[in-house]
Each structure stands twice: as structure tokens, then as C-alpha cells.
């Protein structure tokens, strides 16, 4: 199981979300607190963010803790819409930069925390890697993000062992699902964080119940909806 995080709000630095927190993704890469599957997340990492309408990504197949170049640059990367992940590869899956989230269709950035039987997913020439998460991302992009909840419920029904936690963001919206793993939300004055686990011990973190869809919109705020099959 990987750990992931999304931000929608005022521009903040990548370092402030990912590196500087006492239990941020960097620490979660070697000492996650709520991870049920896998001990460390050392099989790669990725950070994606919107720079105006353009999405930009930096992905790696190495542990985040060893990347001094990223640590040097992250304090200068600033965005109002960020999706980041550290990866613990599912057995049998490739370890390569293109298998690290976030995935993109050029419009959205998307991370998957979990596992899905590739046999229940359509083959897609658009998938960035043969990893299950990339095939799932391609299906979600194909169906459209407005159908995210329905797509997850459908894949969950087809693969009862699937764990399908998603975080997806574009310039103005941030979406997340819980299906088999943990997710917490922090409503800050300057924006909203969704994360597999809290990056600190602020009591304002709220746990999202399983099989729910979180939608954050710059105009309408945060809504939580139960998914079909819950
Ligand atoms: N199954 C995906 C992979 O192999 C995601 C793994 C995870 O959530 N740990 O990368």
C-alpha cells in the first residue's frame, strides 16, 4: 500500500506538505503510522502539481529519503493544486518511474493507493505502465472524473479483494475515494489536505469512512458522499 496526499487551496510549497511535517510523506516513506499493507514505501515516489493550467510531474523509482536534489528544490515548488505519493509496489508489479503516481491524462493528476486485479480492467494503450494503478488510472480518465465514484464502485464489485483509494486533482477540484484503506481530511484556513494518514497530530484531522467519495471544489467547498456498494 502506498501513501498519498492531495492539496487544493492557496499556493503552498511542495516541501511544506511533503517534507517538513513530522509525519509527512517523507517520514511515511519509512515509518508510516496507519499503513495496513506493507511496512515501508521505498519503491518510488512522485509529485505532481498544476502550474497555471499545465500539470508538471517529478517521479522516481527510488526511495524519497535518498533524493537530495528533490529536497533541495521542493521548497521552491509552489502550487495551489498538488498530488503526491510514495510507493510500496505490489508483488509482481514493475518498479520504474512510470509506475509511480501521479498518473495523468494531461488534465488531471491521479494517485491510487491499493491493489486491483488487472484481469477486471480493460487493456488500454493509454496506460503509462503495466502496473495495476496505471491501468486503473487509464480507465478512470476514460470514463471521466465526474464518474469517479461509479467507476470505483463498479471495479470494486468486479474485484471484491480490490483496494481502491484514489486521489485526483486538477486546477480547481480535488477528488478522493476510500475503498479498503485509510484517508483523512484537514480543512485549513488556506485550503484542504486529503491524505492516507495525517501529517501531524493536529486534532482537526477528520477520518473519512470507508467507501466514500470526497469532493473539494474551490467554489463550493467539501462534500462527502457514500459510494454504491457501501
Ligand atoms: N498496486 C500499486 C502498485 O503496485 C499500488 C501499491 C500501493 O498502494 N502500495 O504500485
UniProtKB/TrEMBL annotation:
InterPro entries: EgtC, EgtC-like, EgtC_Actinobacteria, Gamma-glu_amide_hydrolase, GATase_2_dom, Ntn_hydrolases_N. It catalyses: gamma-L-glutamyl-hercynylcysteine S-oxide + H2O = S-(hercyn-2-yl)-L-cysteine S-oxide + L-glutamate. Catalyzes the hydrolysis of the gamma-glutamyl amide bond of hercynyl-gamma-L-glutamyl-L-cysteine sulfoxide to produce hercynylcysteine sulfoxide, a step in the biosynthesis pathway of ergothioneine. Pathway: Amino-acid biosynthesis; ergothioneine biosynthesis. It is an enzyme of class 3 (hydrolase). Its EC number is 3.5.1.118. This is Gamma-glutamyl-hercynylcysteine sulfoxide hydrolase. Keywords: Glutamine amidotransferase, Hydrolase. Coiled coil: none annotated. Gene3D superfamilies: Glutamine Phosphoribosylpyrophosphate, subunit 1, domain 1 (3.60.20.10). HAMAP family: EgtC. It holds the Pfam family GATase_4. Residues 2-230 form the Glutamine amidotransferase type-2 domain. GO terms for molecular function: hydrolase activity, acting on carbon-nitrogen (but not peptide) bonds, in linear amides. One of its GO terms (biological process) is ergothioneine biosynthetic process.
